[in-house]
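Collaborator request log, item 7. Partner lab (contact: R.S.) asked for a structural prediction of YtoQ family protein to inform their binding assays.
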Amino acid sequence: MGLNVYLSGEIHTDWREQIIEGAQGLDVTFNSPVTDHAASDDCGVAILGAEPNKYWHDHKGAMVNAIRTRKGIADADVVVVRFGDKYKQWNAAFDAGYAAALGKSIIVLHGPEHQHALKEVDTAALAVAEEPRQVVEILRYVLTGKLPG
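Returned to partner:
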């Protein structure tokens, strides 16, 4: 049994790399949004044409990025949603809701400082982890039945 895992959420730390590296040897395929912040912000205007109004600039980018996000979440067996410290990740909350609506298995990843703010998101998850290594341990357990140690 293999797993297709979509890694959603903040792009300012190396949490994705930690999970991918930790899962070496497991039958897991990872997908994620574009994590190049500038490319993600500007993809709509770079492809579809400039917009003088920032709202439409952002709107075009969000729509183009949504094509990748919807496909990644729809194809995923597991969706990992990371909430970091630097910014409010409204898009990550949206991704978690979309994944929940599709009946996907969700692992939420955040520190204890976000427990209250994310209580509704956490309730939709099958696991709430604080560290990327815990996500790896969940994936390992799901695929092999082996506990850490």
